[in-house]
Structures are given as structure tokens and as C-alpha cells.
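Page 37, continued from 36.
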């Protein structure tokens, strides 16, 4: 018995246990195709569903195809792409893209861009903490559809002459979705790039217009106009303060607002673009109205500042505005009335045509169509006295 236990203990484990070979993975040769923005693989088994993840976040699923399609790929930041199947047993595999190169902290840091003053775009960044002293950065914007790149036309520099800012003067030619790349160069080191993909409508700092308007003792009409290349639908909020009363807010769905009994008041405006979470900054305060009790000096100063002056005693501005509006309206009404009358006369003429003139049977045989009525009470032709007139000569 002891001999059997001794033989059992001396027998190699490989001879006691049967080792199964590892099954072939269902997904092999995982690779990225930048030109098509596809994460592709080879299938070697029957897999029902494959999901694709970026940094552990589900992005899309591959249905009956050996790839996942992405709208945008990171150009500079190293990202973990993973595919996972739900078969039995489950399987997952991943790759890093793009491949890391150079010291990560030598790349440009805190890259940010914003649209401002309607037509302009500015991007800024900081030199990396591990960047060498001779590092130089250059910014490019890239079209996500055509991969076309264009370098920044105008840079701003720091004390060492390193580019840390870029200005674009015309954003109207840019697409709504743009990728910005900051590439670094150095003589003795490889500098990784930095990238930022943005929707320009979401990074626009709205430029608020000046409020204009007309007013009288009854009400004030305020108007304004927004300008933007990427945002087109807005809602507005006005903060109004009448005299020394506390300020209050009013919503305005359109680009105008009517304020009854305005008196002297101050107003400012802010806007909210569709699909944005935050409001813009408040505009500059605009003041309307001057009472007759104020001094002429203050009135002169207000005119010099361009402040609208409401006539609180007369409705001159309103009458001018009303007259300018009624004149074209009256002309249109007169034109419409003339057209209506012409059409009506034409219709009546067709419905009731004139009766033809009856011919007189007697006058048809005479040279003249005029008839003289005979009255019996008058004297006969013989009773008429006839005087002869003799012409002696021409005078």
C-alpha cells in the first residue's frame, strides 16, 4: 500500500491531468483603418453580436459586418479601443490608437477654442511641462469629411517666441464640426500632437447687439438683431428697471419687445441659443426716456451719448412711425380699390350690355336726322314777316 502511494506521488502531474488546448479566439487581427475610420478584425468563429467601446464606453455595435464605423478618430490622444462579443464564452480584445510617441507632457496642454464677435475664432494652449526649450507649435484645422488641413494664419507668442495662440478672421467658410490639431517640433525630441474636435455652434460666445427703439408716454418698442454663422434660433431675456423701482425680467421669443407706460427706464438683454445649456452674458445697459423735470444740461449730455429720448408729453415719435406705416398701407388700399372697381365695371358691362339705338323711319329718308315738332298755335309761314338784307360790302 505504501508503495502505491509512493508511486502516485512520484508520477508527474502532466500524466495525471488531461490538458485541453485553448480554443481559437473568435476575433483576430484587430486593427484600425484611419482612412475609413473603421476598427476592423477577422472572424474565425460564429459570433452573434460584437460591441465596440472607446475607453470602456459603448459607442456602437457591429451587425453582420466585421468592423465598427466611427465618425471621428482621435489623431493625437492615445485611446483604448475594445471589441467584445456576447457568445459562449464571452470574448474581448483591444488596441491602443494612435500609437504613443514622444513624451506625453511635451505636447501642447489645455487646448481650447471659441468663436467670438460673429466672424472670428481664437484658439489658445500652453507649452507642455516636459517640452524642450526650442519647441515650436503649429495649429491646423482639419475638415472631418475631406481631411483637408489648413494652418493658422496668425499666431500669438509668449516671451520665448513659442506659439501659444491662433486667430482666424473668417469662420464663415468653416464647417460646423471641425478638428483642431497642434503639432510640435524640436531638434532633439519628438513632440506628440494635441487635438480637439468641436461643434462650432457650441463654442460660440454670442455677440449681443445694441437695443434700439422708439417710445412715447404710452409705450416703448424695443428691437434688436442677432448675428451668427452657426446659431440661428434664439430666445431672449430682458432685465428692465423703471425709474427707482426694482428690476424685473421679461422673456421675449422674438427680436422685439413692447413695454407699456415706459417712463424713464433702463434695460439690458441676454440670449439663449437652441441646443445650448447656458445663457450668454448680459449686454450693456441701455437707457430710454427723459422727463421734463430734468435739466437741459443733462438732456444735452444724453443726446451726445446717443441715448434715446422719449417725449413724455407728446406722441411725436409714435405719430411719425404710424404715418410712415400708414402711407404705404393707404397706397395699397387705393390700388386694390381701383382694381376692384375696374373689375366690377367690366362685369356689369358684360351682364347688362347697352340697348342698340332705334332708327327713325322718317329720318332715314332725310339728309338730317333732326326733326322739328309742329305746333298749331304758332302762326303759319305766310304770317311771318320777312326782311331782305342786302350786303353792300366787306368791312
Amino acid at each position: 500500500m505504501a508503495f502505491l502511494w509512493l508511486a502516485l506521488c512520484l508520477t508527474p502531474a502532466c500524466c495525471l491531468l488531461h490538458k485541453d488546448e485553448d480554443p481559437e479566439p473568435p476575433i483576430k487581427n484587430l486593427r484600425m483603418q484611419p482612412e475609413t475610420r473603421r476598427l476592423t478584425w477577422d472572424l474565425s468563429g460564429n459570433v452573434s453580436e460584437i460591441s465596440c467601446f472607446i475607453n470602456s464606453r459603448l459607442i456602437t455595435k457591429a451587425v453582420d459586418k466585421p468592423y465598427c464605423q466611427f465618425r471621428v478618430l482621435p489623431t493625437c490622444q492615445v485611446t483604448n479601443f475594445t471589441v467584445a462579443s456576447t457568445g459562449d464564452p464571452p470574448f474581448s480584445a483591444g488596441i491602443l490608437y494612435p500609437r504613443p510617441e514622444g513624451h506625453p507632457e511635451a505636447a501642447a496642454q489645455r487646448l481650447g477654442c471659441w468663436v467670438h464677435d460673429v466672424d472670428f475664432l481664437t484658439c489658445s494652449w500652453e507649452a507642455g511641462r516636459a517640452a524642450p526649450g526650442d519647441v515650436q507649435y503649429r495649429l491646423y484645422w482639419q475638415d472631418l469629411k475631406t481631411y483637408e488641413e489648413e494652418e493658422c494664419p496668425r499666431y500669438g507668442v509668449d516671451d520665448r517666441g513659442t506659439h501659444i495662440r491662433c486667430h482666424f478672421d473668417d469662420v464663415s467658410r468653416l464647417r460646423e464640426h471641425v478638428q483642431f490639431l497642434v503639432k510640435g517640433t524640436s531638434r532633439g525630441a519628438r513632440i506628440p500632437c494635441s487635438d480637439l474636435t468641436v461643434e462650432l455652434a457650441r463654442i460660440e460666445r454670442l455677440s449681443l447687439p445694441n437695443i434700439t427703439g422708439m417710445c412715447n408716454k404710452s409705450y416703448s418698442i424695443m428691437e434688436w438683431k442677432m448675428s451668427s454663422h452657426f446659431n440661428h434660433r434664439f430666445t431672449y431675456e430682458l432685465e428692465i428697471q423703471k425709474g427707482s423701482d426694482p428690476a424685473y425680467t421679461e422673456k421675449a421669443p422674438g427680436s422685439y419687445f413692447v413695454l407699456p407706460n415706459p417712463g424713464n427706464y433702463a434695460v439690458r438683454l441676454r440670449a439663449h441659443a437652441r441646443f445650448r445649456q447656458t445663457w450668454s452674458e448680459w449686454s450693456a445697459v441701455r437707457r430710454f426716456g427723459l422727463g421734463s423735470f430734468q435739466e437741459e444740461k443733462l438732456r444735452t449730455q444724453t443726446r451726445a451719448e446717443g441715448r434715446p429720448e422719449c417725449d413724455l408729453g407728446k406722441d411725436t415719435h409714435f405719430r411719425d412711425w404710424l404715418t410712415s406705416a400708414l402711407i404705404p398701407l393707404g397706397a395699397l388700399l387705393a390700388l386694390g380699390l381701383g382694381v376692384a372697381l375696374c373689375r366690377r365695371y367690366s362685369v356689369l358691362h358684360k351682364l347688362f350690355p347697352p340697348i342698340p339705338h332705334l332708327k327713325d323711319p322718317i329720318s332715314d329718308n332725310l339728309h338730317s336726322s333732326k326733326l322739328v315738332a309742329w305746333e298749331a298755335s304758332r302762326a303759319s309761314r305766310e304770317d311771318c314777316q320777312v326782311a331782305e338784307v342786302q350786303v353792300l360790302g366787306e368791312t
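Residues 344 and 350 are 10 Å apart (CA to CA). Flag for discussion at group meeting. The chain has four helices and 22 strands.
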